[in-house]
Amino acid sequence: MSTPLIELDGLSQAYGSFVALDGVSGLVPVGRIGLVGANGAGKSTLIKVLLGILRPSQGSAKVLGLSAVDDTIALRSRVGYMPERGGLPPDQTAADFMIYAAELAGIPHKAARQRASDVLTLVGLHEERFRHLGDFSTGMMQRALLAQAIVHDPDVVLLDEPLAGLDPEGRDQMLRLIGRLEGFGIHTLVSSHVLSDIESTCDWILMLEAGRAIRNSALDDLVDEETVELEVLRDEEGVAEALRDRGAEVRVMGHRLEVTTVEHDPYDLIRSVLVDKGVGMRLLRPGVKTLEDAYLRDGGRQ
Amino acid sequence: MSSVVPDTQDGIEVGQGAVYDLGYRPHDGDRLGRSGAFRAMIVDGTRRALGLRRKHLAKIIPWGLIAAAIVPAVWIMGLTYVVAGFGLEDTGPWGDPAEFFEYIGLLTLLFVALTAPALLIPDREHGVLAIYASRPVRAADYLLARAATLLGLTTLFMLIPQAILYVGISGLYFDGMLAGLIENGSNLPATLGTLAAFVLGFGGPAFLVALFAKRFVIASGVYVMIMMLSLMMAETMPRATELLVFKLIAPLSLMGHPYSVRDWLFDQEPEGWALDRVGLPPWVGAATIVGVVVAVAFLAHRRYRREF
Asked: Which of A51, A31, A41 is nearest to A192 (CA)?
């Protein structure tokens, strides 16, 4: 495995008596990472720890091999951050602020001007570059925030609720922009409590619940090999009964059945039952759980 | 990535060209590190304080105050040249650098009252500190850059009119400007020392108020009120009192200390500032100014260390 994007080792963070992160450990590979969890699960706290803003109460955190506590300045040279709220001075033009945001990361003025122009074009704000940020709509502000997060050419960007407050069209545009970042060599950590957005953007999930990591896995791992989805043409109750008789767990949803079995190969089992009952089928596929299913199940276990 | 536009469209010949999507280009040039960031913060602070690259409304007050500081100096010199002609060495009270501090001091108070909040409050209130926190910048770098901007601009605000007067008065000398510059140069150490006392003495408390205030207008108002109250305190303090309580209270007269330092450095008769009234030496004023600046630096770092 190459240098992980994030390494967490027994990471805890408390605000007084409130524990925001409770012994979070794990390795997160480079790529498009989804940081999911309910409001108050500890997502924003984790991002602040990764940026070196908060010092962990216990444990350690590394980003791209750099300690968030000991190598803060070196780390921040390689990281971009899109905060959940605020971050834009309303009295400055988009172009001026992008230049400033690049210069703050040490980019020389001439190069900063060029990069500001490039990233504003990339996020679709080139025409608006001389407008004051205070006159921007919510969608434009979110795009400007994303632009400042990448204007200094970071290796990784931490996006804290980048879709908050956006209308469906704005969400779609933002998701497409985030999806493009990997192609530019920029890894992303996207924090959100909207699981479907994460599902469509990310390839790895770090799931938090009440300050604990309840899942840290590839999105593909949500495919459940023991479960198969089946859609029959008729007699779904009869098919379900026959499957249950042979030891399978079956959930009936209209014409669709979710079949889970640990004793047999589910495909063999379904084939023989359908042959015996003389029932045709319309669909047969692996039981892919949604992130929401996984969240509810994993969260429930906790 | 590029694509070539076809040279015919529906059988009609069209101009040939290429559409380029430059996409994203990584930065492979130099990075200037924290020094580059520091310089950028100074430039940003200067623009913000003076309303540069902002809407016109933001320019009115700072540039109005700058005009109010410079125009009288130019006016005094111009009037003296026109009315008296060359050869006059008496330029009236405002031609004296020590006296000019009397006028510029109040303007400086207003300038500082507006500049300190402009440098600190918008970043905090609009969440811009989160952006600084994602750059290779420490809280100390940010605060140092903001303080340097405040002190630098205030220094220029006071220095430019004094420089106009210094050069202008020197130009009136019979023996030529050089002789005037040399003779008036004897005032330079006292002028610069007094200027430092004003810049630090007014800047420190303004920075402190701006560290904690949430609104720009409130910060300016509270600062001016504190300074004016401290001046009133000096006015109401009994003269030549030996009571210990007054000796302890007198250093709180923040507004009066730069003037005490001025009287001290220019070797003038004290004008009845708080320290003079209770019989404390003027260096106590200078020491208080330094003490306030150190305390403000400490509090500023405590206030901002959790933001970065």
From this structure: A41
